[in-house]
C-alpha cells in the first residue's frame, strides 16, 4: 500500500522508473503491459484532488437530542435516564389521559407478564383438581412449604396433598344395587340403582318434627308482611246534584259548552297557553298522577301521596266531585277503562284496586305482595276485563278482573318496570324499566320480541304515545326527552331530542298537543316547558308549581288548555 501511495509521487522517482523501464525494454524483447508502466504525469489525478484532513466532530446541540428506548427490548446496554424510560411510546404525550390509561399494556385489559411453569406440573395439578377437587395454590411463592391448597381443603389435608400421579388411597365407594338385565322389565335398574342402606324417604321423628315446625314458623313470620286491620274503603260525594233531571250522572259529558267533546278530530290549530285560569286544591300532599276522563276529558282524576284519589270537574264550577279513600300508602298510578265507568288505583301498600267511578265502591282488589309502579287497561273494547301492571319484582302481570286471577306474566326485565305503553293497534306493548332498557312484547306472549338497550341510554320512567300512534316520547333521566318510533323497528330518532329542563330523578309525565304541534312537560324545579315538535326548539317555559311539576297534560279538545300537577298538592289549569 505504501508503494502504491508513493507511486508517481516525485519527479526523481519518475525518472528512475523511466530509466529502469527503458533498461528493461532494452534487455528483454518481450513487450510490457500498459498497467505496469508508470502513469503519465499529465494524466495523474494527484495534482487535481484536494484531501480534507479535518476530523469528524459532533455538531453543536446534538447532545440535547434524547435517545429513544424501544419498549420491546429485553436488555439495555447503557444506563437510561428516568425521562427516557417513562417517555410516551410514540409522539407527544396525551394531556388528558388518566394514570390507568397511561400505564403500558400489551392486551386490551392490561399488561400481561409471561410466567414460566413446568408443563408436567401444570397438568399434574389440573388433573388433581378435576379428580380430587383440590390443587396447590398457584398464588403462593416457590419458597412456601407446599401446604397451601385451593378447592376441597379437607380432602387435601386427608390425602396429604397427593396428586393423581402419586395415587392417594382409593376412596371406598358405596355398593350399588345392580340389575342390568334388559329382559327384566319390572326389575331393571341400569345406572339408577339405589345404594346399600339408602333411605329414600326421610321421616323426622317427633323431636325433629317439633324443631322443624318451629324453624318454619319463624321463617314464615319473618317473611310475612304484617297485616293491619282491614282499612275502611269509602268514597265521599261532594256535590248535591249527582244526577241531572234526566237521571244522568256526572260521568255523562255535557253538550252546552261550545266544544264538541265527542269529536274524534283534534282542534285545527293549537296555541301556547298564556294565563293561569284555575287551581284545584284539596289534596294534603303532593300529587303523583293525573288522568283525563277517556275521550271527552270533561273530568279529571288525580292520585295523591295522601292515599286518596279525587275526581274533579273540568267545566262549569270546576268542583271536586268525589274522593275515593281505601289505600294505606301513597298512590303511584291510576288508569281509566275505555268507557270511564271504572278506574284502577295502584298504591305503595302493594294493592291495586278497581273502583266504580259512579258509586265510589271498590269492585275488586289485586295484589302479588309487590309494589305496582304502573297500571294500564288493555285498550281494546273486547279486552276491557284485562289489565297489566308493572311491579317492583321486574314482572309485568296481567289480571282478569272477572275472576281476579293472574292470566299471564311477562318476566324478562332486570329492574322494576316503570311504564307500559300499547302500540301497533294494541297488538303489542312497550315497557321501560329501571334496568335502562326498553322491551317490546307481543300481547299474551311472555317473551320479548325486541330488546333495546344502549350504553348511552338512561332510565325512562315516563312514556307517552303520540296522537298519530307513530312516535313515543320518553322522559330520559339525563334531562332529555328522546323519541322512539312506535312502528316496526322501534328505532330511536336521534335528530329529535328535547332538552333544557331538569328531570333527573323524577318521573315527570309529558304529553303532546292534539295536533302534534307541541310537546309539553314538567320538570323537577316546578317549571312547565313547551317545545315545538318539528324543530325541537323550546317555545315557552314558566314557573307552574312550588315543588316538582310531576305531570303536564294537554286537553284533547281544547286548542290551548294545559293542566299541570305538582308536589305542592295543587292542580293548575292554564289557557
Automatic annotation (TrEMBL):
It is found in: Nucleus. This is Pre-mRNA-processing factor 17. The keyword Repeat applies. InterPro entries: PRPF17, WD40/YVTN_repeat-like_dom_sf, WD40_PAC1, WD40_repeat_CS, WD40_repeat_dom_sf, WD40_rpt. The gene is Dere\GG12541. Keywords: mRNA processing, mRNA splicing, Nucleus, Repeat, Spliceosome, WD repeat. GO terms for molecular function: mRNA binding. It comes from Drosophila erecta (Fruit fly). WD repeats lie at residues 280-314, 324-365, 410-442, 510-541, 542-575.
